Amino acid sequence: MSNIYDLTRKEFQNIVTQNGLNKFQGDQIFSFIYRNKVRKLEECFNVNKKALSLFNDYDFETLNIDKVEKDSLGNIKFLFRLKDNNLIESVVMNQSYGKSICITTQVGCNMGCKFCASGKLKKIRDLTPGEMVLQVIKAEEYLNDKLSYVVCMGIGEPFDNYLNLTKFLYIINDPKGISLGARHITVSTCGIPSKIIEFADLDLQVNLAISLHATTNPLRTSIMPINKVYNLDELFKAISIYLTKGRRVTIEYILLKGVNDRETDANRLLGLLKHLDCYVNLIPYNDADTTFQKPNHDEQMRFYKYLRDAGLNVTLRKEMGSNISAACGQLRGNNLA
Ligand code: SAH
């Protein structure tokens, strides 16, 4: 059975117009579902009965909260059970500028990054658009509050599930629906050049973050196997094309002690990003049961200041959620063990 949350508003319109009705009736049902939060078609009042009947075969519930963990800062981690019993997770981070949710895009991940807990669990399947949408809806329901930001940085590689991802983005951005501004949505990728270029032409100004993490091909290949397929050269060509469309990118850079946090690394990073209009977000490694270590606070600050003083637009990410195992597949891993 298909899920109602898999459908973009355009798809609602197509279904009704293919049956001889006005596309407005598709919009109406879409709005009832997202604005009025109806969970049963019968609750859509004053909507043409024939239009409603076209959606009789779609179901609403495909995601159940299995477990919730909270920390003292108001961060919440949800473990969700999908209809086929697979488990996924989302984390809500309570930030001064609003609540942001980090959602999962695939069950497991095939990218195999060496510092990441998610990569230890191979991809079982892609999430549908509805399963991504429902992470947002269920979290908002649980919190009884609106989420201000959505980041696709949970388990999975969003660009390895491109079509479903973009449908999800259209659904949450839609002004007749959840209506989350594109500038409040961020997609993070390990760097698949063809998709970066395609994403530049998407008619949504969603933020793009790229997981760089290393400045030489041998090092990047050794920690991110995707680099064997698309090396730094190809990645930066795609980033340049993306930037020509007037968009900006955020470069994510994990700090791994003694591996990529030396002065030579900082200098190479400056070289790679010279002339590129981008932000850099330094992420202290979050212990994920791998062989890596996080640099101590002073070492993190040294790397950060070096880049900042050289004129880079750089931030050092505050560490959040490590005490609720909020980083990258840890809760799911714990529950599968
Ligand atoms: N596959 C996508 C999105 C998921 S990972 C990507 O690669 O960008 C989201 C971010 O968390 C990425 O920047 C990823 O490299 C980072 N990450 C993964 N494991 C981490 C860890 N143990 N500590 C800190 N950041 C981590």
Verbal overview:
The structure is a single chain. This protein is α/β, with parallel strands linked by helices and 337 residues long. The protein is 35% helix and 20% strand. It contains twelve helices and 14 strands. The chain has helices at residues 9-18, 23-34, 49-53, 129-143, 162-173, 193-200, 217-223, 226-229, 232-244, 263-273, 297-309, 330-336; strands spanning 2-3, 58-59, 63-70, 76-82, 87-95, 98-102, 106-107, 125-126, 149-152, 185-189, 207-211, 249-255, 278-284, 313-316. The strands form three sheets. A ten-stranded mixed sheet has the order 3-4-5-6-9-10-11-12-13-14, with helices on one face. The chain has a two-stranded parallel sheet with strand order 1-2. It has a two-stranded antiparallel ribbon with strand order 7-8. The two termini are 31 Å apart. The structure holds S-adenosyl-L-homocysteine. S-adenosyl-L-homocysteine binds next to strand 10 and strand 12.
Beta-strand content estimate? 15-25%
Give the radius of gyration. Answer: 21 Å
Order of helices and strands: EHHHEEEEEEEHEHEHEHHHEHEHEH
Overall mean pLDDT: 92
Helix content: 25-40%
**Major sheet: order of its strands?**
3-4-5-6-9-10-11-12-13-14
Low-confidence stretches: none
Counting DSSP E segments of at least 2 residues, the number of strands comes to 14
Estimate nothing, just give the exact number of structural domains: 2
Broad structural category = alpha/beta
Q: If you consult CATH, what is the topology of the largest domain?
A: TIM Barrel
Ligands, ions, cofactors:
S-adenosyl-L-homocysteine
- The CATH superfamily of the largest domain turns out to be Aldolase class I
Name of the top-level CATH class of the largest domain? Alpha Beta
Instruction: State the distance separating the first and last CA atoms.
Output: 31 Å
CATH architectural label of the largest domain: Alpha-Beta Barrel
